[in-house]
Design a protein that fits this description.
Blueprint lengths: L2 H9 L9 E13 L4 E3 L4 E2 L3 E17 L6 E4 L2 E2 L5 H11 L9 E7 L10 H15 L6 H11 L11 E4 L12 E3 L7 E6 L10 H11 L6 H18 L2 H20 L10 H15 L5 E4 L5 E6 L3 H7 L4 E3 L15
Parallel strand pairs: 5-7
Antiparallel strand pairs: 1-4, 2-3, 4-7, 4-8, 5-6, 8-9, 10-12, 10-13, 11-12
Helix pairs in contact: 3-4, 6-7
Bound molecules: ligand 2P0.
């Protein structure tokens, strides 16, 4: 089964006549229980479920129209992107699965409000917004589940960026991945806050895709990971239902550290933390010993994401003056204006 087969199955009987232009937005997301490892690399099918929080106003806007030229015209944050750049190649390769005719090209204008340099991944929100834009451009009217499956084909974590709030990606078991999609939890938590601590904006040496492939192939602890994720997911859902920040923070921090332990035990080892990362972690632990209810999570990079509630926000800002804070469930007025493109 290839991505093209999956797309053909989902779009069977749907139209291929584009309207003039379509616009869409999708939020970025941060996993509280992580996705690390695939059972199918072509379809981005994960080994385990994962559970994330969407970042409200931080995400990707996509404007999509039929192109006028012989090749896709791709823009990012107002600038035309060369066709040979990795961004344009990845976008065009994804769009290849959706062209109604081989000579059909797209005009794609993406604008990120998630600052790429802030250590929040923009590929998840980008592919999710692109799927929403395709759905609107061709009038497919696809259910959220099918949109999540299509976004997953672009990037696994994009499956979780179709919805707001807490979102669980169900790993599924079917070889074609038709049961591997993400759906939102009903819970809300207006006081919850996520903070980005940017410690290094340089590109990471080994990307997630290659990193997780290596961990599955070489890390001898990887076989323990699915059971750990199952336990963490159960604890996280209980914490969310109870709006218990200490329980949520404890499980998210522990899950992130367990993932980084897997990475470190991969051959050759993957160590994403820098000295600045470790300094920040020790500062968080010291503040917590002093009574500040503050936890962290980390992804495949050196930056740290802080987890806390509104009650701790002023103290967290005092401890980390450069932190960028998002209120995932708050009204737009309570969130900072997104950084501009
Ligand atoms: C996550 N990460 O759950 C985990 C934690 C990074 C560390 O999802 O190959 O860019 O496109 O499926 O989605 C990053 O992996 O990888 C990721 P692909 P993706 O957020």
């Amino acid at each position: 089964m290839t991505p093209r087969d999956v797309v053909a199955r989902i779009l069977a009987g749907r139209g291929s006549t584009p309207r003039a232009v379509a616009n869409a937005y999708a939020p970025a997301n941060i996993a509280l229980v992580k996705y690390w490892g695939k059972r199918d690399e072509a379809l981005n099918l994960p080994v385990t479920n994962s559970l994330s929080i969407s970042l409200g106003p931080l995400g990707s806007h996509v404007e999509l129209a039929r192109g006028a030229g012989a090749a896709d015209a791709i823009w990012l944050n107002g600038e035309p992107i060369p066709a040979e750049s990795s961004f344009a190649r990845r976008a065009s390769a994804f769009l290849d699965w959706f062209r109604p005719a081989p000579d059909f090209t797209f005009d794609l204008r993406a604008r990120n409000t998630v600052p790429t340099a802030a250590g929040f991944a923009s590929s998840a929100s980008g592919f999710a917004a692109l799927v929403k834009a395709l759905n609107a451009l061709f009038g497919w009217d696809l259910p959220p589940r099918e949109q999540s499956i299509l976004a997953r084909l672009g990037s696994g974590s994009a499956a979780r960026s179709l919805a707001d709030g807490f979102v669980e990606w169900h790993a599924g078991a079917a070889p074609d991945g038709m049961d591997s999609f993400a759906a939102p939890l009903e819970a809300t938590w207006p006081e919850l806050r996520v903070g980005a601590l940017v410690l290094c904006a340089a590109e990471k040496p080994v990307g997630s895709r290659e990193g997780m492939r290596r961990s599955v192939a070489t890390c001898e602890f990887y076989r323990e990971w699915p059971a750990r994720v199952a336990r963490d997911l159960a604890e996280l859902k209980t914490a969310i239902a109870a709006r218990d920040i200490a329980a949520l923070g404890t499980v998210a921090e522990g899950n992130a550290l367990a993932m980084h332990a897997l990475m470190a035990a991969t051959r050759p080892p993957l160590v994403y933390a820098l000295p600045e990362t470790m300094t920040a972690l020790h500062a968080i632990w010291a503040a917590r010993r002093d009574g500040l209810p503050l936890w962290f999570t980390m992804d495949a990079g050196p930056n740290v994401k802080l987890i806390f509630t509104r009650a701790a926000e002023s103290q967290v800002r005092a401890l980390f003056p450069a932190v960028q804070v998002v209120a995932p469930f708050a009204s737009p007025a309570e969130n900072p204006p997104p950084a501009h493109s």
